[in-house]
TrEMBL record:
Residues involved in S-adenosyl-L-methionine binding: C280, A281, A282, P283, G284, G285, K286, D301, D327, D343
Active site per database record: C396 (nucleophile)
Residue ranges annotated for the SAM-dependent MTase RsmB/NOP-type domain, each copy included: 175-464
Region (Disordered): 1-38
Classification via CDD domains: AdoMet_MTases
Top-level taxon of origin: Bacteria
Protein's recorded name: rRNA methyltransferase
Pfam family of the protein (one): NusB
GO BP annotations listed: regulation of DNA-templated transcription; RNA methylation
GO molecular function ontology, one term from the record: RNA methyltransferase activity
Basic and acidic residues composition bias: residue spans: 1-21
UniProt xrefs under InterPro entries: MeTrfase_RsmB-F_NOP2_cat, MeTrfase_RsmB-F_NOP2_dom, NusB-like_sf, NusB_RsmB_TIM44, RCMT, SAM-dependent_MTases_sf
Keyword terms of this UniProt record: Methyltransferase, RNA-binding, S-adenosyl-L-methionine, Transferase
């Protein structure tokens, strides 16, 4: 299974990026622009502006748009598909546009540039009908006095992109889709070749991964769902549609969780009767794994507003946990714990294939401040353990400061801590993800033939 192109893709959550054909092409009227049927595109355009200016994450920008609630569900999905494609493939789309632009639009013309980007995204990523696409984006360019002067240019450029833009788009360097600071970082950390493979792997929208509830026949469930059972136990589906409509959702037979995100709790190895804390728990994917083992589970998260999904997930899957809103650096258990899972807040650069906007919501300086938070959380988590207790630390980041460097510094300052190396048999067909210390580093370009996986760092530590 390979990563799919955007036109066939879906997100891991309940929202999907789906192919879309406008019901009716926007009319080619003269004079006052006709903005009928432009609602989803206008929302996508505003959302792209919010993402690139760092004002809001993509889903929030779309859902909080004043016109969002007026759209049918199908049109909301269309708005998201356009905006996500424009954000995900920014560099490649700009490369295709540049071929037909004598010079770039001025720096002051952000909105005009975003019109071209969204139009090109529809043409080259979503493969929508060129005539309707060009008409709609030219009309939108014309509809705003700040961009109207570029309407003629948009018409000419988007037409040419639809006819001859494919080569430049397909040939573009995938690293150009990322903010410059992140592309440079990945190249420095992993080398140009691997960094490019990582960027390429996040260019397509990933499949949907599910974690089956323990005790369920995962092979049979995979067959029932038309999916594939992955070597580490997750089930992978392509073109799954809305997960809440899939068989077994309501009965709690599985939950949505990237195959890499399912590894930390598996490597923790929770056992019935153990007392285990999941310290940064919301929305609760790893809490469910721990609770399903029969361990007494404490799900702690600082963000109270992120806790309702934890409760809803536990209820749907019919599992129990003590759920509490608390800062994990302040929270203390009644008695020392058998194990702690710390899925620390991070830059989330490992999840770009699922959330392409994440790269634009962060700056390089954020990594150092997040690393400080992670360091405090690590110390607090370790203090909660009884002697012999286990700590699994993980982040969905590809940055060493939030992974390898973080754990090296922790082991250096904590005499009673030792790394418990992950054994090859614990990660079937993913043995290459185990580093020389016995920690785990997954990357989006791994498991290429199976459809890739998110980037995670995972270390298992024992208290001496
Ligand atoms: C990566 S997410 C956790 C995802 C979750 N473990 C899962 O698998 O569904 C990080 C979480 O850390 C929480 N968080 C950040 N700082 C925290 C702190 N000091 N104490 C507790 N939770 C914190 C955030 O609210 C966020 O929900």
């Amino acid at each position: 299974m390979r990563p799919r192109s955007e036109k066939h893709q879906g997100r891991p959550d309940t929202k999907r990026e789906e192919p879309f054909r406008p019901r009716k092409p926007a009319p080619q009227g003269q004079g006052k622009p006709d903005t009928r049927n432009l609602g989803p595109r206008a929302i996508a355009l505003d959302a792209v502006g919010e993402v690139f200016s760092g004002k809001a994450p993509l889903d929030h920008a779309i859902a909080s748009h004043p016109d969002h609630n007026r759209l049918e569900v199908r049109d909301r999905a269309f708005a998201r598909a356009i905006a996500a494609a424009a954000v995900r493939r920014k560099g490649a789309l700009e490369a295709a546009l540049a071929v037909f632009l004598d010079k770039p639009l001025p720096q002051t013309a952000d909105r005009g540039r975003h019109v071209l980007l969204c139009g090109a995204a529809e043409l080259l990523v979503l493969d929508n009908a060129p005539h309707a696409v060009v008409d709609a984006w030219v009309t939108l360019m014309n509809a705003d006095e700040k961009t109207a002067r570029f309407a003629g240019l948009a018409n000419a450029v988007l037409r040419r992109v639809s006819e001859r833009g494919r080569g430049a788009f397909d040939g573009a360097d995938p690293l150009a889709d990322l903010p410059d600071w992140l592309a440079a970082r990945w190249a420095k950390t992993y080398g140009e070749k691997t960094a490019r493979a990582m960027a390429r792997a996040r260019a397509g929208v990933p499949p949907l991964d599910l974690t089956p509830r323990p005790g369920i026949d995962a092979g049979k469930l995979a067959g029932d769902l038309g999916g594939e059972l992955l070597p580490t136990g997750s089930i992978r589906l392509e073109d799954a549609g809305d997960p809440t409509l899939l068989p077994g959702f309501a009965e709690g037979r599985w939950w949505v969780q990237d195959a890499a995100a399912a590894l930390p709790a598996r490597l923790l190895g929770p056992k019935p009767g153990e007392r285990i804390a999941d310290l940064c728990a919301a929305p609760g994917g790893k809490t469910l794994q721990i609770a399903a083992s029969g361990a007494e589970t404490f799900a702690i998260d600082r963000a109270k507003k992120r806790l309702p999904p934890v409760h809803e997930n536990l209820e749907r899957v019919a599992l129990n946990a003590h759920v509490e809103a608390a800062d994990a650096t302040q929270w203390t258990p009644d008695a020392p714990l058998d194990a702690v899972l710390l899925d620390a807040p991070c830059s989330a650069t490992g999840t770009l294939r699922r959330r392409p906007d994440v790269a634009w919501a962060k700056e390089e300086a954020d990594i150092a401040s997040l690393a400080e938070v992670q360091s405090r959380l690590l110390d607090a988590a370790f203090a909660m353990l009884k002697p012999g207790g286990r700590l699994v630390y993980c982040t969905c980041s590809l940055e060493p400061e939030e992974g390898e460097d973080q754990i090296a510094a922790f082991l250096e300052r904590t005499g009673s801590a030792r790394l418990d190396p992950v054994k090859p048999g614990e990660l079937p067909e993913l043995e290459t993800a185990i580093d020389s210390q016995g920690a785990v580093r997954t990357r989006p370009d791994m498991w290429a033939s199976l459809g890739g996986l998110d980037g995670f760092y995972i270390a298992r530590i024992v208290k001496g």
